[in-house]
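Please, structure for the following, as tokens.
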Amino acid sequence: GLDFVNNKNRLKKPMVRKNSILEEVTWPEALDFVAGKLEHHQDGDYALIASARGTNEDNFAAQKFARRVMKSNNINVSSNSRPKLVNSLQNLIGTDCASNKIWELLDSQVILLVSANITEEQNVVSVPIKQAVAKGANLIVIDQRETELTRYATKWIRPLINSESVLIGGILRSIIDQSLEDHDFATEKCEGYDKFRNSLWDFDLVKVSAQTGISQEEIREMAQIFANAGASSILYGLETISDSHINDTVESLVNLSLITGNLGKKSGGIYPLFSGANQQGSRDVGCVPNLLPGHRPTASQGIDLMEISEACSSGAIKALHLIGDELFHNTPNRSEFLDKIKATDLLIVHESFASEVTEIADVVLPSALFSEKTGTYTNMEGRIHRLRPAIGPIGDEDEDWRILSQIAARLGSDDLSYSSSDDVLTEITNEVETYKTLQINSLDSRGHIRNPILNSSYVFSPIEFTQSKETLVNDQYPMVFAPGRVLFDADRDAGIVTENDLNTITRREVIEMNEEDAKEAGISEGDVIKILGEEFELTGNAHLNGLHSGMVATTALFGTLIESLNSSSEPDPMAKTAGLRLCKVRVEKV
């Protein structure tokens, strides 16, 4: 998946559109052109989207360029598509990142994983989880999809879609009913306990069970397992949960950590699971529309990623600056995004490979890959890694912080007068409180972990019992498909066919389906059926089980993902691979 760094089909020279055609030009000519155009967009109609693979230095420079040079808070990073994952954490516990270190999970007695395909998206974090389970820890997975860690789970819970916050509310209510709470911690270390506790009376387990599809007994057992352990940790990605339900779910999970006294405890705590290579670092250095470097709030917030397309179409954004073509791949928003950004007066793109976005850009600036950069990344636990070039440049590509520095100079600004990435990092250590103890000269030898600054007093959130009115389906596609993927499946036969020196996995897919839904459709166990979505179809044998009505599910092998990567014509296929997203489908008997 990372052999794209050796791909020879790189963009090697800057290009400027002349007479409707992109033509190669020199760097000075391209930078002069960009600066000449941007000087007309310093009144709030400019937006910059930084790369999810950008270093801390790249993305610090990006936010500073947008704010100081272009006078715009319309700055973001392409991986920040679900900011609600952490927005409430800052107020509730004092930090918007993991409260504990990754390897503390090794000694967690209970690990609760909510809607996260962690072995693929954050694979390093899955290692201590597997090792903890091997040592006897209980793993509870709440997810409609079958993923690699469901195979390790003590309990795999598959709730009805968008009912996760209600399910966690039921667990909280059961903890109170069974007197399993850490009363001293909740009253002495936290604020708002009484109001929160009173809000739980709406979570009658009969109602919770009906809303979530999970039995009362399962809810009580989860409460006992989590609350009775010496150290319980929570990890959440909320990948299958609609955006409108994320805040409620996050607040409920924080409440669960607080009521059991696990916040601030070694091998306890809470871990939000970001997408993107450097989402945590990007937030730390202020490369998001609502935060300045050091997590200081902005006086006025810029537009979110999900608003970018409409802002370009309406004219609110006239100049769009993209560092990397990373937005909305494999989502229904992709075609809309491509159509609407054409309405901008100026589209600047930093990229390493030709793409659909470079084809419509006014300026294309060749950007260095991560393997050619010097800089730092910050992972979800606050560990700052040094990045050194592993390969040399192929053409005239450059690092993004330096490109922005040269454009800023041409616009008459000395705010980005850097001569090296360490100059940028030095400024970051001056502006970001948790980076001030970082010793740049020692990064290569021993790295650095910046410690989160937790509140001295945590905050409970009262929760509401809400019934989801949002639907993922329509008349044409009346069911929800939950795709899963595992590394190995010992229960099913699979073959391998070799052709042109390439191996292909052959096996019949099994499609899980609710018995009542199958009966209504005239489908019996083992029948050949077809799942049809908006952009895909899948054929397999029906397996009728206890899956919730209105859902179908399959579990693919990780090897099939590797096959698709190998056969892809994309120079960087991993960046454009679809995750395991829920989607609407219909089912037909073949």
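The chain has three domains: 17-80+278-375+399-438, 84-274, 479-589. DSSP finds 21 helices and 27 strands in the chain.
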